[in-house]
Amino acid sequence: MSGTDGEAQLEALRAEVEQLREQNELMSAVIKHCPAVVFIKDTEGRLRMCNQAYETLIGVGPGELLGKTDHEIFGEQTGQQNRQNDLEVCRQGDPQLLEEEIPHPAGTLIYSSLKFPLYNSSGEVTGIAGIATDITEQRVAERERAALQQKVIDVHKRMLSEVSTPVLPLASGVIALPLIGTIDSGRAAALLDALLAGISDNGAHTAIVDITGVRVIDTAVAAAILRAAKAARLLGTRVIITGVQPEVAQTLVAIGADWQDIETLRTLRDGVAAAIRE
Question: What is the pTM of this model?
């Protein structure tokens, strides 16, 4: 090999080393200044590398976390949570996206952690790396929206229940409970409460349950109406069912509902007249 060839190879080697150095500096700068938490642990869970965001989260200086485990950094509960997640990632051998709760002086933080195993040239797991992003505000906002949505639903149900089972005082000692629309299990359960409350509040001797606006009645609804009528009669209140439509009557016959002891009249007007006469 001539001196010229040797110098050329040496120069090429220097250029390659310089290129690797620049790439290493760039990678280090990216990791250091990345706003997400970046870390590498060995198979025992000891921290081998972490970026500035990790150190800022814990409130320590550069390099102070190296060699420590999550148990030492976060305490027993969080350390155990993170260790179990790390072991599962190593067991499965594939990247895993996890949510982990981290204690902090400002309150518990929620991190979305992408963890993945690291392998050596022999294919053996040598550690685990992770990139974790703070999603606390997002999760808090989601929980607040869910809570607000549930509150709206509860208010809507309560308003619907009040509107759908109104008790109307018609005369001294006479009340009416007009039912309209579809009666589901929720409204059927509310029927008994509404009727008994109306009887108590108005001192009613007669209660008219008008089902003119009900087009469909199944076994459960028929049973609910019967229970309401029987409960009212135990209070000494006369119960009159009015407005049974032909299709409803056919359904009641088909399902074998026992309405023999229940007083029925054709219309609400008939029921009111009968109650006043009484």
Answer: 0.54
